[in-house]
Structures are given as C-alpha cells and as structure tokens.
Amino acid sequence: MAQIGFYHLTRSPALAVLPALLGRTLAAGKRAVVRCATVERVQELDDGLWRATDPLWLPHGTQAMGHGPWQPIWLTDGQDVPNGATFAFLLDGVEAADLSPFERVFDLFDGHDEAAVASARKRWVAWRDGGHDLSYWQQQPRGWARRK
C-alpha cells in the first residue's frame, strides 16, 4: 500500500512548492512522476522547474523531450511512468487509478479553490477506504504542519 500525503496549499501555488519536494525526492535517491491535468500544465511546470533556484538543478523530462527511462523526474498529463518512479506527485485534482508502482504519493491541492478541496476530500475517503496510509499537511506561514 502506498503512503499518501495530502498537501493543502494555502499560501503558494504548486509550482512554488514542487522544487523543494522534488529536490528532497532526488536527495533520497528516488525518482518521481508529476501528473498534471493538461499538456499546458506540463509545459508550465517544465519551464518553471528549469528556472527553479532551490534546488538549483532539477533534471526532468516530458514526452516532448523523450528519453523517459533516463529522466529522474517525469512530467506528464497521462498515466505513463517511463522512468520507473516510485514517488508520484498529483496536481490539479488528477487521480491515479493504480497506485501499486508507488511507495509515496503527494496529492497537492489548492486550498483557495472549493472544488479542489471537495475533490481532495473525496480522494481521501476513497484511499482511506482502500487501506492506504494517509497523512494531511497544511501549508503554514513557514513550512508545513501535519494535521489530523
């Protein structure tokens, strides 16, 4: 069963918090897949990760770039995991039908969007009922706080 963390974004958009989370993923020797709702969102993240300054280097790729198996971080609008990632980052309310390839799942959702919050609650219930280990993190003025 996957360990699933819900990340309630209250101060920053996903692109602002992803570099730190992805940097920690790479530092742990893991590979990541970032699943987005649209191709446009993939392009936005691609551009943003190249511009990230902390950490300075986040090697990643997309379907447009190719070489999926070589990419430590894979950005996609689909269900593909060509890099063998064991960490999945879900954005924009994207759902993952099959969590079996993943040790950890990070579900990032916009706390200022009521539809996004309601959708996250539904995913929480479904994954809790599926027997997954869940945690909830709320963005604070400085860092994250784990909530019950």
From TrEMBL:
Signal sequence, start to end: none
GO BP annotations listed: DNA replication; positive regulation of DNA-templated DNA replication initiation
Coiled coil: none
GO molecular function list: DNA binding; DNA-directed DNA polymerase activity
Pfam families per UniProt: DNA_pol3_chi
Domain of life from the UniProt record: Bacteria
InterPro entries noted in UniProt: DNA_pol3_chi, PolIII_chi_sf
Transmembrane feature ranges: none
Protein name: DNA polymerase III subunit chi
Source organism per UniProt: Komagataeibacter intermedius AF2
